[in-house]
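Notebook B, p. 112. Complex prediction, attempt 2.
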Amino acid sequence: MTVPLLDLHAQYTPLRQALLDAVTRVCDSQRFIGGPEVEGLEGELCDTLGYPHAIGLSSGTDAVLAALMALDIGPGDEVITPTYSFFATAGCVVRVGARPVLVDSEPGTFNINTAAAIAAITPRTKAIIPVHLFGQAADMAPLVEAANQRGIAVIEDAAQAIGCLYQGKPVGTIGAIGCFSFFPSKNLGAFGDAGFVTANDASLAKKLRLIRTHGMEPKYHHHLVGANFRLDAMQAAVLRVKLPKLAGWSDGRRANAVRYRKLFAEAGLGEVVLPVEAPDRTHIYNQFVIRVPERDRLRAHLDAARVGTEVYYPVPFHLQDCFADLGYKKGAFPIAEAAAGDSLALPIYPELTDAQQSAVVNEIRTFYRG
Ligand SMILES: *Cc1c(COP(=O)(O)O)cnc(C)c1O
């Protein structure tokens, strides 16, 4: 049995006609930039999150970049980020000319260690970017409290966590700006690159909209230097078909996580460490990441058995070549380094069948027990 890491066909097939109709609607309108599809999606995102401002953008990476630009972060400024995340989180900080100040993960969840983040604050700190990694919220309350006391902005990197709750609140509605991605492998995926940002503050939202289109308002009058960070109408139309399905898909992912826990318990595989769910954080399982001995050999075994897996992420930021000038050494962040060495993402997409999940666990059992 083949078990891919992600099966987008399984999601596409039942929605095929509705998606083709949406794409046809955009083609027939010949309106590709802005317009009713983008505005419609933005309104529906606000309704879904119960939040006043959602601004469609070209990608999740551009969402982080636009957030930093909107907060006027640049040379001389420090921005605290976890060392263990997707590259964009720290890459965008460098792109605006600021310095990423990296911190280790908390034991258990892979998310930023809040106490370490607060300890890393200096007079130069302008923002903290917690990442809600793999679909589980970072521990926001202490971070937001510490940041508010010092006038520091919290930018949530919620690229992997749309629909995830922290103490009952959707992530992306807790800090000053929330950054989301519609990359096809995220829980709500476009047919290409896309993303959005959220904000509570009307003037900040207005600035983010200006940044999205070269700081231009009205046409050819520029208030600030922005970029082309626009979301395509075609992507917005596709996302409007999928958004109403998102909550059900998240439930499916959570149900699959429950089933994995049952299957692993039955298999008696004590050496496999399952994802830790922190209290008061609704994990929406963009990834189901286990921790295992002999990870690379297990991965090769699963690959040969046609079970798709991935390593998120093999190299934390502080050990990346492009950040060598930040001066961090191996051993600086032992929790993240350990996770980079033993974490393995298993298939968790909502359409995964019982039989496929059993096959995954059986193959892992075969690897360790023969
Ligand atoms: C996917 C992702 C991004 C970037 O989103 P893109 O749409 O791929 O640019 C940023 N941060 C995290 C944590 C991500 O997982």
